[in-house]
Design goal:
416 residues, alpha+beta, 5-stranded mixed β-sheet, 4-stranded mixed β-sheet, 16 helices, 46% helix, 19% strand, elongated
């Protein structure tokens, strides 16, 4: 098998296209080792019209173009060809679409597919561009085309893609309470859409964009935090769905209340030369099974003193976790009322504030016992999104952040 036959098989080049010449160049100080593949098309070839598909002849050829292909061993490989233009009686003169590349691209389909996989593995634009030996702008172009291709395919799959559980969460973009709102599929963790800001208007815009990907009428439950803008937008955009306030956000409020109580009590104890609560913040915030041996020893000693408000607030915080183990909403309602009374009896104002907040939204929390869902998949993806943000050293705009999130977390069909 000669080189022309070898590359014809690798590139999938079929008649009337043919590889007319293959050159292998050695490395010099100025030039890398390279393979030059010349592809041609005989003048008398009959081609299909790019517009109507009818048979037509070659009118002329464009100037020679170059495409970067996957390396052959350590040899940078390029394809060269003059693209023919056809003349159709119905459609006029049009340029032929070559089988190895998409229109106007400088890279072959195989190279673009490889570049997408490298970027998804690295999650860093500059490192991926260096590995592929292309510029940042070229890699951004490949990524943007792949993302648009994936989104277009998702829109076409709307009839077969069904979202039953929708998660809504926010992620900080810049300092100063500048957020993006992220919509997830609660069953798969797929990021469906990203919209700048977390206002009611922004959330409604996100739901409108979401309607292009799936039928909003199929959504049965939406999990979110207690942000009023999210709730109002969902009531208007997805009125049939039950709203469930997420247990992870409740846990955040609980932890914050316990820490406020600990700090106030520690300040009082330090004035009495009692340092038991000093530097124990994370002992009261972490799960018990995740404590180190040193932390566990400190915890076991401090928790013996039941007069400490920190200990009591921690016990009540842990006790509230059983709320989600109740069998039905009636049992959960009874549990909550008894738990709130304990909080009030112990005069734990920060924790009582959380209890009042929960009571205000209790009807939507009780929907948990109908659907048994949470933002667990969204919280898992948030860790990935935070990693992407850190590797990129932040993003200059919400548009760039959206592209990165959808590219890495959108579970889109990106390959050409």
């Amino acid at each position: 098998m000669n080189l022309s036959e070898f590359y014809s098989r690798i590139l999938g080049i079929d008649l009337p296209w043919q590889i007319s010449k293959v050159e292998v160049t050695s490395s010099t100080k100025a030039v890398r080792k390279a393979v030059r593949i010349q592809i041609s098309l005989p003048k008398d070839s009959e081609l299909a019209c790019p517009c109507c598909g009818g048979s037509c002849s070659i009118y002329d050829y464009t100037p020679e173009r170059q495409w970067r292909h996957l390396d052959t061993c350590d040899h940078e490989t390029h394809i060269y060809s003059r693209i023919p233009r056809t003349k159709c009686d119905k459609c006029g003169i049009h340029r032929v679409i070559v089988p190895w590349s998409r229109p106007y691209s400088k890279f072959t389909l195989c190279f673009e597919g490889h570049a997408i996989e490298v970027l998804q593995n690295n999650q860093v634009m500059r490192r991926s561009a260096q590995q592929l030996r292309i510029s940042l702008d070229e890699l951004r172009g490949i990524r943007d085309k792949a993302l648009q291709r994936g989104l277009d395919r998702s829109i076409k799959d709307k009839a077969t893609y069904k979202v039953v559980h929708l998660c809504i969460d926010e992620k900080s973009l810049f300092r100063g309470h500048h957020y993006v709102t992220i919509f997830y599929d609660g069953q798969t963790g797929r990021v469906l859409e990203v919209i700048e800001h977390r206002t009611q208007i922004a959330t409604q815009e996100g739901l409108e964009l979401l309607s292009k990907l799936t039928n909003l009428a199929d959504i049965q439950v939406v999990t979110m935090d207690m942000w009023e803008a999210f709730r109002n937008a969902v009531v208007l955009g997805v009125p049939q769905a039950d709203i469930v306030h997420d247990r992870f956000h409740i846990a955040q409020h609980m932890n914050k209340a316990v820490d406020i109580i600990r700090r106030a009590e520690n300040k009082r104890l330090v004035q009495q030369q009692d340092n038991r609560l000093k530097k124990t913040k994370y002992i009261w915030l972490k799960d018990s099974e995740k404590l180190t041996d040193t932390q566990q020893a400190i915890f076991d000693e401090v928790v013996k003193d039941q007069t400490l408000k920190t200990v009591k607030s921690w016990e009540l915080k842990e006790e509230f976790k059983s709320f989600f183990d109740c069998q039905n909403k009636e049992e959960a309602l009874q549990f909550f009322n008894e738990w709130k009374k304990k909080v009030a009896d112990n005069c734990l104002k920060p924790l009582l504030k959380v209890a009042n907040m929960i009571e205000k939204h209790l009807d939507r929390m009780l929907y948990y016992f109908k659907h048994r869902v949470s933002n667990a998949m969204a919280e898992s993806k948030n860790a990935t999104i935070q990693q992407i943000k850190m590797k990129a050293r932040g993003f200059k705009s919400a548009k760039a952040f959206r592209k990165a999130i959808l590219f890495f977390c959108g579970q889109l069909n990106l390959l050409p």
